[in-house]
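== Sequence, structure tokens ==
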Amino acid sequence: MGRDLIRTFADDWVAGLTDLTPQVHQAASLIRAGHAAKTRRLLPAERVYPLPRELEDPLSAGV
């Protein structure tokens, strides 16, 4: 079961990978220099993913 689950995850669930190492290094340099607000432009925008209604209540109850 474990190997099948890993294969399913890798093949079906992962939509893409992006190496953000250069942006993170640059962001860290900006933060150290006192320019934390400028780091936002270097990082990807957060996205809200749709959630089935039946999962909303159980998940928000744990908050």
User: Anything to note?
Assistant: The longest helix spans residues 2-13. The chain has a mean pLDDT of 83.
